[in-house]
UniProtKB/TrEMBL annotation:
Domain of life: Bacteria
Entries under SUPFAM superfamilies matching the protein: CO dehydrogenase molybdoprotein N-domain-like (SSF54665), Molybdenum cofactor-binding domain (SSF56003)
Region (Disordered): 1-38
Domain Aldehyde oxidase/xanthine dehydrogenase a/b hammerhead: 44-150
Family matches, as Pfam families: Ald_Xan_dh_C, MoCoBD_1, MoCoBD_2
Organism: Streptomyces noboritoensis
Protein name as catalogued: Xanthine dehydrogenase family protein molybdopterin-binding subunit
Length: 777
């Protein structure tokens, strides 16, 4: 981010966006840009990740994966592998003592393929050996005889295809019906949109270590984002009681859903139990691409009806999610896609049908903004079409239709949380545009395609586009959201015990800030996470800021009461008349003044608390129901330069205004927004995990183009709206998913403005942005 953007970020906290830099926040507590405790270790390369782990007597694991997308397994011969020197164990489906299948919500995914292979890269067998090279050679020596089957790779054909699974090919169907189906508008626009397969592409590939226990159980050390769910899945697979399986969370090198695949952990545990030795597995980048879940490729058909002034009358849509071989999180993703199919707009009548189907493509699952990102690209494409047909400014058309607090979603749920959508859009619309580069060969400015690109300045066109996005927070449709935390204080030092995993969203830093704010203690430590602690749930949808942060706050307040009650009783006043700040306790009238350490008098104080938000309900047979705890919104204005001869696109600037509820850590919040926007730019322009007949092409970081620092545009955080959600702890909202959802649609909108082309596919292919060649033809 440029210096100007950093200034805008700082100033945005007070809503100015362009004003002078604000006074420095306090060094600790809520509202401070507290540095993460592990920042130095990560910077110096001493932070322990799963791939760094070691144990005495360590064995190495390797997994044999299917080279086919669809095949019948006729035989598996492991004899050659088992006889190799240094090989200690070989396991297949026949060696799974417990449940042969696993999965989140639907247990339809086998630990090892037994009779059929349903996707490229599906695990067939695993090997443990005394050297990693030996393990890989042994895995390659396993002879598997396949009968190749015709893969089902087109989700539209999955409805009529032979069932790929005993449960059939249809995972879920949601026919949302809201309003009068016979209503029509004076102006109608239609569109067909396709969203590609985005990979989470973690910086560090999956790795883990399994260590057998004396009681016949096993401990698994891995970068889990939901350790208790992983423990329960593993225990069921191993045929053990959950108390005999322990998951210890190691350093997580970033996660946007990709750490939820248990397929890396289960073979490890089986091999450790079989050999009685610690076993380590470090995935190659190719294995990482083959094994974990990706964003759902999606096909969307839309028809928007509006009146002559551009106000929406009805939205009709069909949404088809390609779930790949197994159900994973497809049901939840489909619910989000259908519920948010109309976007943050008031739509009196909506009829949306959504399907999630199995295919022989790579598995799809949780990736930031799942479901919401795909529909955002489509409904914003429709809004651009509608603006063009009516001759209206795209921002003005959107302003005439924006959602506000008290409006209804097409699911029938009332928006009770703050929904400052108009304010967000106005902020990015009114923010000054970047200056235009001079059409001068000697002027040093970036052309689309990079500094060494072949483009000419005369072929470059600038476009400005807008997008509004929304996401839900926490789980949905009746998910029981709960987290537990313990806060202990002794000798002036506080410790937080909570099984909430910091996946890069900054929970450990937030937990420290909450305790600092509540107890006035600057030195706060957060204990490492394992399954001996009470569960805190998965790290997704901003859960830990809300439920785990809420649990930490409640526990800290209980400790505060324990600390202050004796003093209040001694001085004949209530605890509400005492305050704690900077390690000191003072009364409102100044009579009492002491330090926290003196008040503790060597005692240890502790408390455990839970946080559980209000319940939700599943969508019914017509897509109606109060399915979401809370919503977050974002507006982005994109400015792009497009070489209309080559079709190359350069994102010049993205102006962001976001509904955050409350800024808890300004530096951390800015980083999360910037990261989300950049991930969205990748989805818009470069990231597409391509397949041919179900086989992943080029499963590496050469064939899969991630945006680098050179590709990241200037990101201007022009406004952060701090309208607190009264039902959320601290009033804060999830921050990182909604810019991922919104930025691809904004980039596509800007490319449409620059080229006049429809741009109905993400990522945007060069041929979709070429104008001159098409005109010449």
């Amino acid at each position: 981010m440029s210096n100007d953007a950093a200034t805008a970020t700082t100033a945005a906290v007070d809503g100015t966006g362009t004003g002078p830099e604000q006074p420095t926040a306090p060094g600790h507590g809520l509202g401070a840009s507290l540095r993460p405790a592990d920042a130095r270790a990560k910077t110096e390369g001493t932070f322990p990740y799963a791939s760094d782990l070691w144990a005495e007597g360590l064995l190495w694991a390797a997994v044999l994966r299917s080279p086919h997308a669809s095949a019948r397994i006729l035989s598996i011969d492991t004899s050659a592998a088992a006889e190799m020197p240094g090989v200690r164990a070989v396991v297949t489906h026949a060696d799974v003592p417990g449940d042969a299948a696993h999965g989140r919500g639907v247990a339809d995914r086998p630990v090892f393929a037994a009779d059929v292979v349903r996707h490229h890269g599906e695990p067939i067998a695993a090997v443990a050996a005394d050297h990693p090279d030996t393990a890989r050679l042994a895995a390659a020596a396993i002879a598997v005889e396949y009968e190749l089957l015709e893969p089902v790779t087109d989700p539209e054909k999955a409805f009529a295809a032979e069932p790929l699974h005993p449960d059939g090919n249809l995972i879920r169907h949601i026919p949302l019906q809201y309003g009068d189906p016979d209503v029509t508008g004076e102006v109608v626009v239609e569109g067909l949109y396709r969203i590609g397969r985005q990979d989470p592409a973690p910086i560090g590939a999956e790795a883990g270590l399994a260590v057998p226990r004396p009681d016949g159980g096993v401990e698994i050390y891995t970068a889990s984002t939901d350790p208790h769910a992983d423990r329960d899945l593993a225990a069921a697979c191993f045929g053990l009681d959950p108390e005999r399986v322990k998951v210890v969370v190691t350093g997580v090198p970033g996660a946007t859903g990709d750490r939820e695949d248990s397929g890396f952990q289960l073979p490890l545990g089986l091999l450790a139990l079989r050999t009685g030795c610690p076993v380590k597995l470090t995935a190659t980048r190719e294995e990482s691409f083959l094994g974990h879940a990706h964003r759902h490729p999606t096909l969307l058909r839309y028809r928007h009806h509006a009146d002559a002034e551009g106000r929406l009358v009805k939205v009709e849509a069909q949404i088809l999610l390609d779930a790949g071989a197994y159900a994973e999180a497809s049901s939840e993703s489909l619910a989000a896609a259908v519920a948010f199919a109309c976007g943050p707009y008031v739509v009196p009548h909506a009829f949306v049908e959504g399907w999630a189907v199995r295919t022989n493509n790579p598995p799809s699952g949780h990736v930031r903004g799942e479901g919401a990102m795909q529909v955002c690209a489509a409904y914003e494409g429709q809004m651009d079409k509608l603006a063009a047909k009516l001759g209206l400014d795209p921002a003005e058309l959107r302003l005439r239709n924006v959602l506000a607090t008290g409006d209804l979603l097409p699911t029938g749920q009332t928006v009770t949380c703050p929904a400052p959508v108009a304010e967000l859009l106005t902020a990015v619309r009114d923010f000054p545009l970047p200056t235009l580069p001079k059409d001068d060969p000697e002027d040093d400015w970036l052309l689309p395609g990079g500094p060494e690109g072949a483009g000419e300045p005369g072929a470059v066109r600038r476009g400005v586009g807008y997008a509004l996005g929304m996401v839900h927070m926490l789980g949905a449709e009746g998910t029981d959201e709960v987290s537990t935390a313990t806060v202990k204080v002794q000798d002036g030092v506080a410790t937080v015990i909570c099984a909430a995993v910091d996946t890069g969203q900054g929970f450990t830093t937030l937990a420290r800030q909450i305790v600092q704010e509540t107890l006035g203690i600057e030195e706060v430590h957060v204990a490492p996470v394992d399954t001996d602690q009470p569960p805190a749930g998965p790290a997704s949808h901003g859960r830990h800021t809300w439920v785990s942060g809420g649990a930490v706050e409640r526990a800290a307040k209980m400790v505060r009461t324990q600390l202050l009650q004796p003093l209040a009783h001694k001085f004949g006043m209530s605890t509400e008349l005492l305050q704690i700040a900077d390690g000191k306790i003072t009364s409102y009238d100044g009579v009492l003044s002491t330090t926290v350490t003196e008040a503790m008098d060597g005692k240890e104080l502790w408390a455990t608390a839970q946080c559980r938000p209000h319940p939700t309900e599943p969508l019914d047979e017509t897509g109606q129901g109060d399915a979401f705890v809370g919503l977050a919104f974002c507006a982005i204005r994109a400015v792009v330069d497009v070489d209309i001869e080559l079709g190359s696109v350069r994102v010049v600037e993205l102006a962001v205004a976001q509904d955050v509820g409350r800024v808890l850590n300004p530096g951390q919040l800015a980083a999360r927004i910037e990261a989300g926007v950049t991930q969205g730019v990748g989805a818009a322009l470069t990231e597409n995990l391509r397949t041919a007949r179900g086989l992943i092409r080029h499963p590496d970081l050469t064939g899969y183009a991630l945006p680098t620092a050179l590709d990241a545009p200037d990101i201007r955080i022009v406004k952060l709206v701090e309208e607190r959600d009264v039902v959320a702890p601290f009033g804060a909202k999830a921050a990182s998913a909604v810019p991922v959802v919104t930025s691809p649609a904004a980039v596509a909108s800007a490319v449409r403005a620059a080229t006049g082309r429809p741009v109905n596919r993400l990522p945007i292919r060069p041929q979709a942005a070429v104008v001159v060649a098409a005109a010449g033809a």
